[in-house]
Amino acid sequence: MATENFDVIVIGAGPAGYHAAIRAAQLGLKTACIDAALGKDGKPALGGTCLRVGCIPSKALLDSSRQFWNLTHLFGEHGISAKDPQIDVGAMIGRKDKIVKQFTGGIAMLFKANKVTAYYGFGQLQPGNVVTVKQHDGSTVELKGTNVVIAAGSDSIELPFAKFDQKMIIDNVGALDLTEVPKRLGVIGAGVIGLELGSVWKRLGAEVTILEALPDFLAAADAEVAKTAAREFKKQGLDIRLGAKVSKADIKKNEVHVTYTDAKGEQTIVVDKLLVSVGRRAATKGLLAEGTGVKLDARGMVEVDEHCHTGVDGVWAIGDCVRGPMLAHKGFEEGIAVAELIAGLPGHVNMDTIPWVIYTEPEIAWVGKTEEQLKADGTPYKAGSFPFAALGRAVAMAEPAGFVKVIAHAETDRILGMHLVGVNVSELVHEGVLAMEFSGSADDLARICHAHPTLSEAVHDAAMAVSKRAIHKAN
Ligand code: FAD
Ligand code: NAD
After folding, report:
1. Extended strands (E) in 53-158
2. Residue among 73, 307, 348, 452 flagged as catalytic
3. Overall fold of domain 169-278
4. What is the pTM of this model?
5. Phi/psi at 23 (nearest 5 deg)?
6. Where is the FAD/NAD(P)-binding domain positioned along the sequence (predicted)?
7. Does 452 participate in catalysis according to the annotation?
8. Which of 155, 159, 165 is nearest to 285 (CA)?
9. According to CATH, where is 3.50.50.60 located in the chain?
């Protein structure tokens, strides 16, 4: 078999992999990128989980369902009424599919434009930086890279008693492709996917029950943010049951009987579909042949140092298949950093300023440390917050729920975290990211002129509240 040589071979064309491949090619490196995924039409589809069955399709459905919810629940306040509004689920899913096709096709075009050679099939790393690709037509090609970047991503975790059939027991793939609104949707796991996709189907009329094993809701978020979000979700009718240990999920005819135990003892709920969203694991099965020297940790993640290097000469790993948050933008940054390091340039990802966003209504977003983490670390801090209910723009939009909280070091005033819950906070959180990247203080943020009336004024007033000088609320 002839071997084709490359400067860089990337395994996986998700957010991490396609960023690494395009940046490497931009830097003049001869680059190949391999991806095994097929789209809904059975044809190769680049872009990974994010573009096929993750970030983009979920946001398409979140937006469609939000429009429907607003029409049926919010527009009345604006004096707008519509007779008997209906949702056409087929049209909604069709719109989502069109967006997915546009963006997955877009990556293929970007590869062409940047002269990245795409290989469609399953890549396996062999010793000596050789990668074999089993292509979809059954043939195998062999590539050799001065550098190999592993960007294999992640898959849903399956529970042993609730195997995915993508009809009755589904993960994100099934939940993004339902053909009608289920009357009763059960969800295991009140994490990001459970809340986002649970919200989609709730807004369209499903009864949604979410079973969460932990006793605390959204334990990773700021406690006040989690409390506010939980209150709003309850008002929307999301039934979130905490401390629920699920033990069984039996399919009986067209129903799933889900058994769990909580403080009240053993209970069963009966649902039409069951979404299991209990986290994701690195997709490293079959990725490494014997003797590559690349190590996997106990959870199957590729072991890397702070520069995403595996310790094997020329082999790097990035994105969901390595430590750190499983977020597309974390993968983007690692992809670019590794390509630049390979080209001999500086490359670094600041893990302390990676923003988190949960695209529910209200949205939830944060960057940096929470008050709970700072207390546990013994770091002295001061916090200031500002509610959207006191903000002209938010009230004018009929979106008064939530607040912005800025946390700064008690002595230096340096911003340590920003926590937000409310309308469009997915955009506002970047003021915090930017300020933290520039080592800014709460006072810096408070002295920056923000346009009136905008939602961003909540950030400004929260920064002023850190030193008890907010204008639009009592300090
Ligand atoms: P992936 O996107 O998983 O891509 C890996 C690619 O590698 C895949 O195409 C796979 O087929 C391919 N591959 C794997 N092994 C091989 C092999 N051996 N040979 C060839 N190809 C291989 N993150 C956000 O930041 N914001 C969001 O709003 C968001 N929403 C999400 C919603 C859902 C429903 C889900 C499931 C995830 C969401 N995420 C979101 C997470 C985000 O999708 C992931 O963090 C991101 O896709 C990870 O990028 P990656 O490149 O590491 O891996
Ligand atoms: P998650 O880690 O966000 O949440 C999983 C939840 O399931 C946790 O609360 C956990 O306590 C609970 N859980 C685990 N085992 C359980 C069990 N047996 N019974 C009941 N509850 C159980 O995972 P996810 O929602 O599957 O999402 C996976 C990852 O995808 C996220 O962590 C995130 O990195 C990424 N993602 C990001 C976004 C975004 O950025 N907006 C959206 C979707 C997914």
Report:
1. 117-126, 130-135, 140-150, 154-156
2. 452
3. FAD/NAD(P)-binding domain (3.50.50)
4. 0.98
5. -65, -40
6. 6-335
7. yes
8. 155
9. 3-156+281-352, 169-278
Residues with CB under 6 A from ligand 1: 11-17, 34-37, 48-50, 54-55, 58, 122-123, 151-154, 172, 193, 283, 287, 319-320, 326-329, 331, 359
Distance between start and end Cα atoms, the chain? 73
pLDDT in tens, 335-371: 999 999 999 999 999 999 999 999 999 999 999 999 9
Q: Which residues pair with 364 in a beta bridge?
A: 358, 421
pLDDT tens digits along 366-409: 999 999 999 999 999 999 999 999 999 999 999 999 999 999 99
The alpha carbon of 215 and the centre of ligand 2 are apart by a number of angstroms equal to 15
3-state secondary structure of 457: helix
CATH of domain 362-466: 3.30.390.30
Contacts of 65 (CB under 8 A, 6+ apart): 87, 92, 199, 200, 201, 203, 204
* DSSP label at residue 159: B
Closest among 456, 262, 49 to 448, alpha carbons compared: 456
Cross-sheet strand order for the sheet of 255-262:
245-252, 255-262, 265-271
> What's the CATH code, domain 3-156+281-352?
3.50.50.60
Residues of the chain with CATH 3.30.390.30: 362-466
Ligand 2 mutation target, pool 280, 351, 361, 420, most atoms within 8 A of CB? 280
Burial state string for 119-150 with b = 16 or more CB within 10 A and e = fewer than 16:
bbbbbbbbeebbbbbbeeeeeebebebebbbb
Contact 407, 417 (CB under 8 A): yes
Element (H, E) at 331: helix 328-342
Contact 148, 7 (CB under 8 A): no
Residue in the block written with tokens 């002595």: 411
CA dist 234 and 165 (Å) reads 30
